[in-house]
Amino acid sequence: MQFKFRASEDRGGADHGWLKTFHTFSFASYYHPQYEQFGCLRVINEDRVAPKTGFPTHPHREAEIFSYIISGELSHKDTMGNVETMKRGDIQMTSGGTGIAHSEYNDHPTNPVHFLQIWALPNKRGLEPKYLTRHFTDERKKDRLAHIVAPVGYEGVQEVRECEGLTPIHAPLHFFASLLSPSKSVTHTLLPSINGKATKKLYIQLIQSSGYNTESAAKDGKNGPLVQISSGAQSAKLGEGDGVFITSGKTGEEVIIENVGNRVGEVVVFEMDDE
Predict the structure, then answer these.
(1) In terms of C-beta distances under 8 Å and separation of at least 24 residues, what long-range contacts does 161-167 make, across chains too?
(2) Which of 66, 141, 249, 263 could form a disulfide with 146 if both were Cys (CB 3.0 to 4.6 A apart)?
(3) Under a CB-based contact definition with an 8 Å cutoff, are residues 85 and 74 in contact?
(4) Dihedral (C-alpha) 248, 253, 259, 264: value to the nearest 10 degrees?
(5) Which residues touch 111 (CB under 8 Å, ≥6 apart)?
(6) Share of the chain above pLDDT 70, in %
(7) Could you tell me the strand order of the sheet in which 173-180 lies?
(8) HSE of 273 in the Cβ direction (CA atoms, 13 Å)?
(9) Cβ of 95: how many Cβ atoms within 10 Å?
(10) pLDDT tens profile 238-262
(11) What's the 3-state SS for the chain?
(12) Domain boundaries, the chain
């Protein structure tokens, strides 16, 4: 495997007052030719939306879009009649397909909402638009990797509105999350390719849970989580908001994730087939 570290402060982003956001990939007014997408991943925005504000109704098509709620409440409305308020532990998947419009608001009077907004490129065009939700408790993520999103057709995936299983996505993408305690570690074993590809890609990020901060996050672990990512001779240390891009992975290889800081860290792992 090959590791490429990217510091939190090197992400794009902006403070619009009502919205404070970081962009892992080129988005809106932020453009970086080396970070337009990674495998099928096209967008990872770490968003914080102020109370009583949000994104008005806007259209999407030919994109798999899911929100991972970290704190606060996010209210969703769409043109298929779905109305829902999501809280921590909830994950919402919108399969844009031939076209859908939705709005996302923070209707809470005092508390901001913090969430990851993630877009993946679908493996098939012209799909019927769909909206799905799942819930994953903190207990399911505590010092383990909870498998949250998996491709349609993967064992345990059901394309129904609500159930206890994995969240389906029409892309060769798996998504995991862990609440990792200090001195604890988890091991991720790369899964078989669904497209018969020889190599896999991974992107691992430590969520910036301490707050919106455009300066460098603490990297010594004395004031927060610090996560060591390693596989063979390759390694990277992630402070809050940092990420590592991993290429040339193969099925069955292992990546070790260890919290070497002094506070619980929320880690997200994306695994996808190579192009």
Answers:
(1) 161/131, 161/132, 161/133, 162/132, 162/133, 162/134, 163/134, 164/134, 165/134, 166/134, 167/66, 167/91, 167/93, 167/132, 167/134
(2) 141
(3) yes
(4) 90
(5) 51, 71, 72, 73
(6) 97
(7) 2-6, 243-249, 200-206, 265-273, 173-180, 146-151, 167-169
(8) 16
(9) 24
(10) 999 999 999 999 999 999 999 999 9
(11) CEEEEECHHHCEEEECCCEEEEECCCECCECCCCCCCECCEEEEEEEEECCCEEEEEEEECCCEEEEEEEECCEEEEECCCCEEEECCCEEEEEECCCCEEEEEEECCCCCCEEEEEEEECCCCCCCCCEEEEEECCHHHHECCCEEEEEECCCCCECCCCECCCEEEECCCEEEEEEEECCCCEEEEECCCCCCCCCCEEEEEEECCCCCCCCCCCCCCCCCCCCEEEEECCEEEEECCCCEEEEEEECCCCEEEEEECCCCCEEEEEEEEECC
(12) 2-273
Asked whether the beta carbons of 239 and 162 are under 8 A apart, the reply is: no
d(CA 50, CA 199): 41
Which two tokens mark 164? 């206890």
Q: What is the pLDDT of residues 76-129, one digit of tens each?
A: 999 999 999 999 999 999 999 999 999 999 999 999 999 999 999 999 999 999
**CA–CA gap between residue 231 and residue 246 (Å, rounded):** 10
Instruction: Return the sign of the alpha-carbon dihedral for residues 229, 235, 237, 240.
Output: negative
The domain defined by 2-273 folds into Jelly Rolls (2.60.120)
Smallest CA-to-CA distance from 74 within 40, 45, 34 is with 45
pLDDT of res. 274: 87
Amino acid, single-letter form, for residue 185: S
- The residue type of 171 is A
